[in-house]
Structures are given as structure tokens and as C-alpha cells.
Amino acid sequence: MKVELAGRTSQTTDKAEETPPPSPAAAATPSAAEDAPLLPDGGVRRRPGSGRFAQRSGSFRREVGRAAAETFLLTRLTLILLRYLGIGYRWIRQFLALCCYTFLLMPGFIQVVYYYFFSSQVRRSVVYGDEPRNRLDLYIPTSTTGLKPVVAFVTGGAWIIGYKGWGALLGRRLAERGIIVACIDYRNFPQGTIGDMVEDVSQGISFVCNNISSYGGDPNRIYLVGQSAGAHIAVCALLNQAIRECGEGDTSSWSVSQIKAYFGISGGYNLLNLVDHFHRRGLYRSIFLSIMEGEKSLQKFSPQVMIKESSARSAVPLLPHIILFHGTSDHSIPPAESQAFVDALQQHGAKADLFLYEGKTHTDLFLQDPLRGGRDKMLEEIASVIHSEDLDKSADHMVVPAARRLVPEFMLKLAGRVSPF
What we know:
This protein has 421 residues and is α/β, with parallel strands linked by helices.
């Protein structure tokens, strides 16, 4: 966004004579006053570089202001979560575990936060809709040659504390592999319910499909990624669009055919099976049903159930290749959720694959493994699928240097032991 500042003109009451412009020779010759550090009246002369310094100072103040606004938003989301979950022994214990977990991963978090707010490769809060949370962040690769493949990413957060900034680490890692990443923000509960979240994400996908070429992205190579609750919301948006296209032929905003593949990380796809599980984990039944617009809507927002309905069966073949990732030690959302969804998709003619990672928890795939550095198996799998259609880029991404470690190994292991997830 360009902001033009109108120049100020000063006027004097006395009539001033016009001063003719200096000759080129005079302009090229510095005057004695130009060299003097002080003016005759004792004032400090502004050097030519002071304007650039003022610009940098103004830019830094804006960045600090944005960082403060983001911090305020995150604090408010945390307070909202605590207000709805209530304060009890279970949540005090979970909160203390979360504090320890965050402290142990803090060396990596600090570096990611710095990258998020101060990297020139990050375009924050691009507006894609009319709602206050209709914003997305773009992570742009350093190389600007040719159009880049694109990932539209929907972060998790238990449908309550989802936030686009959670995708900074994944955005950074994929951008290092020559992929543009758009992290889509959306309304959370109680700002909205599941229908609002799906609508926001669908609108964000539409923005990416129709505008990403302006940022160097290839509109013919767009991929959708969701994590945890974001995986559920993203696949709901994908299935709803397929049903609309199949029934009404509605491709006015975006089309399922524009999405080359969908990657779901640690997602849940059958809410009917998860209500009691989440209740035992602390996301109480009454709150969860409020998020999901009542018990009658659980089936409507359960993709695994929906693809078996007669109204959706004809839409299943329209879906792109669906690839799911899940850790076998995930206690937040059992890996059986991904397995059952893949089985249902394959039974109804969709192309679907599942990758299970032995011993990985709910946050390992998305957080601890990328913080560990080196070769990340899940990210390498995603990048290889994305680059598979371009042989040259596939070769380039394979020679990307191993990512730098952001957190010592012993701290990652301790964080895994105290993790509340």
C-alpha cells in the first residue's frame, strides 16, 4: 500500500522575492555552511542522511506498533479461552504444563517471532474480506525468478485460538524451498461458529486463487494445507465447494479444480466420534457443541460422514488428491481419525493417502520437528509433491541446505515430556 504525504508549504506575511535556481556549477560545489556541523545560531544542521534515518526510525516505530497490536490480540485470545474453559484443577495443571512447554521452546520462538515481524519476505495482514479477521500473511521466497507454487495454509487452535501467526515456522520452511505460503486467518469462537470459520477460509482460498499471481505465485499450482482444527475447517471448505459445483455449478469465486492437492496435518474429520474425547481432554461438551452450532450440526460438519451422504457422493470425485499426516502418539486427536477418513475417501473413489509417524505427538509434526532443523520428513514429503510437476524445481528443492536448528535437542525432548497436547 502506498501512502502519499502531502508536502507542507510555508507562507510568510511579508512578500518574498523569488530566488533564482542555482547554476549547475554552484549546485555541484558544497558551500562552507554545508560543511559546518552547526548553524550560526547554534542549531544543528541536518545532514542529507538524516532523512533516511528518519524513514528508518518511522518504519521501526510502525513495526513495533504492529508487534504490540499482535501481542494484544494473542493475549485477548488467551483470556477468551480461559473464560470459556473455566478455572479448575485440570486447567491449572494444563496451564502450568503449557508455560513450561513454551519456556523450553522459547529460543526457537524468539527467532521465529523476529522473522515474522522484521523479515522482508513476510507480507503481513493482507486483507481478503470484510470481517476484522479476514486477513492473511504471505511468505515469499527469496528467489524471484518465475512463478512459484503456492500453499494456502489454515492453522489450528481448537476453533478458539486459531491465528495466522501460528503458521510462521511452516511458512518460513516452505518459503526456503521456493514455495509461496499464504496463512489464512479466520473468525474464532466466540467471534463466530464453525459455519463462519468455513466461510472465512473459503473466502481466503478464493482470494489466493484469484490474486496470488500479483505476488509472484502460479495460479495453476495452488495447494491447500490444514493443521489440527485448521485441517477440519479446510477440508469442510473444500467439500462444501465441491458439493456446490456439483449441484449448482457454482464456480464464481473459486473452483475445487484449482487446488492441486490437500494436505491434512493431525486433523479430526468425524466430530460425532470426537465430542466425548474432547470433553475428557478439557474441551467441554457444552462449549464444543456451541462452536459446532448444536448437536444436529455435527454430522453436517463431519467430512467423513458427509461423503457417505447421497447429496455428496457425486462431489467426491471432484476432490483433489488428499494426503493426511498423523503421529501415532497424538493424544489430542487420535490417529484413527485420519485412518478412518482415508478409508472412507478411498471407498468412494477419491485419491487419498495416509502417512503415520511413529511416536510423534500432536505438535511434533508441526512445531518440534521444524524447530529441530535438519531434514524434516513431513515437510520434505509436502515439498516433493508440490515440486513433482516441475522437474527443474524438484531438483532445486532437493539441494536446499538442511534447515538450521533453532532449539537444542535436550530442550525439545523435555518439552515433549511436559507438553499438554
